[in-house]
Amino acid sequence: MKIGMICYPTYGGSGIVATELGQELANRGHEIHFISYAMPMRLDTFKDNIYYHEVEIPHYPLFEFHLYTLALTGKILDVIKYENLDIIHAHYAIPHAISGILTKQIIGDSRVKLVTTLHGTDITLIGMEPAFNPIVKYSLENSDAITSVSKYLKDKTYQNFNIEKEISVVPNFIDTKLYKRNECKNVKKHLSSKDEIILMHISNFRQVKRVPDTILILKEILDAGLPAKLVLIGDGPERNETERLARELNIIDNVKFLGKQNAFIELLSCADIFLLPSQSESFGLSALEAMACGVPVVASNIGGIPEVVVHGETGYLAELGDTKRMAKYVIDLVTNSKKWQIFSDNSIKRAAKEFEISKIIPHYENIYNNLMNS
Fold first, then answer.
1. Which regions in the chain score pLDDT beneath 70?
2. CA angle 136-140-143, nearest 5°?
3. Which of 96, 242, 285, 364 is the most buried (most CB within 10 A)?
4. Longest CA pairwise span in the chain (Å)
């Protein structure tokens, strides 16, 4: 099949999932055409059946704001015309699914099918804005198939938009041949001293990630007398507040801000505990990546996280904002090496059993095939 993959190219989970989905589909013989305003971050290897089409956004003095939805529609039309796509797979309802619907209406060809994958904020945040709610609802009702990355997000979609169309839960995935715990002595010596435990957090530092909570957790652990280093990977609007809090609590020397990184596997392999104190998380891809690298996760008990992290087996879950409880869970694990090893082994096994990429991709292929045969 020829599949157009419409996604954001950035560090967010949806862009990562879309890119790795496209790459694995290409490995299975499909022809993949990525369509976005920039090269997807993880599209960093050459394959002769993967193509990238950049969306060029026109700039006219008359238009105060960029017309990305229309520019994207025009690019999808162009790719369909010259590459004969079978499937448009839109990651996010706004603007990607809307552009896909406009494309289908313009070409008037029912043969080209639109699959919309919901990743989270398009339903739980943007979609709840009064101006966008009916647009998201329209995009869902006019997609040929809808998938969501968790049961939580599926239920939330039905609750918020009152649609009757079937939503298939296809969870995010991990390639456990790549994501596995490696020897990291050369990296670890740059992150901490020999006796320090390493806490780690990876995100885009948006407010919903509650990155400053990781500082509060670290403070509790240091106050308990445990030597620790917090490694923060990523960047975004909450970084300044996080740095300010670390300075205010006089623990800035115990925090390493690494900014945006691509060497996730090497870095995660050095971690003792992964922290995910988010207030909104439809799946928790970073938690899954940590688990595949043998890192127990301490997280907030919200959204789709409990579908990934099993409390008391692969990590611990606490109420939102309960940093003291999260710190106690961290201490419980890092002070008991036998227990930590059990949790680490459980994490690796769960990632492989439930979320291995080779087990998840066929679900998407079945959806594509059913649409093409309908």
1. 11-12, 62-65, 127, 185
2. 135
3. 96
4. 67
User: In 3D, which of 350, 268, 333 has the Cα closest to residue 298?
Assistant: 333
* Dihedrals phi, psi of 347, to nearest 5 degrees: -65, -45
Rounding to the nearest 10 degrees, give the CA dihedral for residues 328, 333, 335, 337.
Answer: 170
Nearest residue to 89 via CA among 284, 374, 367: 367
Letter string b/e over residues 139-177, b meaning 16 or more CB atoms within 10 A of that residue's CB: bbebbbbbbbbbebbbebbeeebebeeebebbbbbbebe
Classify burial at 296, counting beta carbons within 10 Å of its beta carbon; exposed 0-12, middle 13-18, buried 19 or more. Answer: buried
Q: Residue 174's beta-bridge partner residues?
A: 356
Domains of the chain from N-terminus onward: 2-172+357-372 (3.40.50.2000), 185-355 (3.40.50.2000)
Q: What is the residue-averaged pLDDT of the chain? A: 92
> How crowded is the C-beta side of 55, counted as CA atoms within 13 Å?
27
Give pLDDT tens digits for 59-112. 777 666 678 899 999 999 999 999 999 999 999 988 999 999 999 999 987 899
Q: Which of 220, 213, 265 lies closest to 242, judged by CA? A: 213
* Contacts of residue 360, Cβ cutoff 8 Å, sequence gap at least 6: 170, 171, 172, 173
Tokens of 69: 């939805």
Sort 332 into a burial class: Cβ within 10 Å, 0-12 / 13-18 / 19+: middle
Measured distance CA(81)–CA(73) in Å, rounded: 12
Sole residue written with tokens 């806490």: 199
What pLDDT, in 10s, does the model give residues 269-313? 999 999 999 999 999 999 999 999 999 999 999 999 999 999 999
8-state DSSP, 32: E
Cα-based distances in Å from 296 to 26, 51, 271: 32, 37, 9
What CA–CA distance (Å, rounded) separates 23 from 40?
11
The pTM of this model reads 0.91
